[in-house]
Amino acid sequence: MSLKRNNVQISGGGARTMMFAHGFGCDQSMWRDVAHRFEDDFRIVLFDHVGAGGSDLSAYDPAKYARLEGYAQDVVEIGQALDLRDAVFVGHSVSAMIGALATLQAPGMFSDLVMVGPSPRYIDDGAYRGGFSHEQVEELLEFLAENHLGWSAAMAPAIMGNPARPELGERLTNSFCSTDPDIAREFAKVTFFSDNRDDLALISARTLVLQCREDIIAPECVGEFVHARVPGSEYRLLDATGHCPNLSAPDEVAAAIRTFV
């Protein structure tokens, strides 16, 4: 049931499994430029969070998905359906933390965790700098609620960065526009108001933090914060700019993952 609910797609023929998870407003297609490079060595698992891509929209439960733990539960259920042990989880943006939570819910399912542009908290809090004020997040969510398509057209190019390559911003815009607007609004609220800083110290999986330059969603200081608090984690500052290196710099992302695993 979980495989259909999350539109799980499996490829590759390796003995070990590598699962890729997309960020807010995206779907599994965001990882295809990277994932196919590992098909000779890994069984590849791609999926859509409920509300995105080809997922089952009727499976959306406001209570379950009011916290990131609900999305992590889906990841664990997919892993159980596929009998995963010692797999690699690669999560982009909010899915980096969803993957971290999944490793806590099901120890042993994922032995390696790759966090691409992670943020345990997006809102500034005292000395902690997440990149946004509470007011900025409120305005962002209000804009999204009032005009989903307008928000997508305005935000996607800024999130993507890489203004010299407008086709990348257009690809992200189209992805944002194709998500269910009601679920997207709730997922955005859960994402931007999340605070999982205390969970970082509990992560026991081998962890790689991949950080981009000029990332307006997860600035460098956030990636450094994650690295400092995940025990034994590795940190790599990519040459890629913007928040979506899986689209803008798939070669660099794939090389970093391969070196780690």
Strand/helix succession: HEEHEHEHEHHHHEHEHH
Helical proportion, percent range: 40-55%
The CATH architecture classification is 3-Layer(aba) Sandwich
Tell me the number of strands: 7
The low-confidence parts are none
CATH-assigned fold name:
Rossmann fold
User: By helix and strand content, what is the structural category?
Assistant: alpha/beta
* Total number of helices: 11
Strand content: 15-25%
Mean pLDDT level? 95
How are strands sequenced across the largest beta sheet?
1-3-2-4-5-6-7
| Rg value | 17 Å
The biggest sheet amounts to: 7 strands, mixed
Distance between the termini: 30 Å
Q: Supply the CATH superfamily name.
A: Alpha/Beta hydrolase fold, catalytic domain
Ordered list of secondary-structure elements with their pairings:
Blueprint lengths: L1 H4 L3 E3 L4 E6 L10 H4 L6 E5 L21 H14 L5 E6 L1 H12 L4 E7 L17 H13 L1 H13 L5 H13 L2 H12 L13 E8 L6 H10 L4 E8 L3 H4 L1 H11 L1
Parallel strand pairs: 2-3, 2-4, 4-5, 5-6, 6-7
Antiparallel strand pairs: 1-3
Helix pairs in contact: 3-4, 5-6, 5-8, 6-7
Could you characterize the architecture of this molecule?
This protein has one domain (2-121, 195-260): Alpha/Beta hydrolase fold, catalytic domain (Rossmann fold, 3-Layer(aba) Sandwich). The protein is 42% helix and 16% strand. The protein has 11 helices and 7 strands. It has helices spanning 2-5, 32-35, 68-81, 94-105, 134-146, 148-160, 166-178, 181-192, 220-229, 245-248, 250-260, and strands at residues 9-11, 16-21, 42-46, 87-92, 110-116, 206-213, 234-241. 48% of the residues are buried. The mean pLDDT is 95.
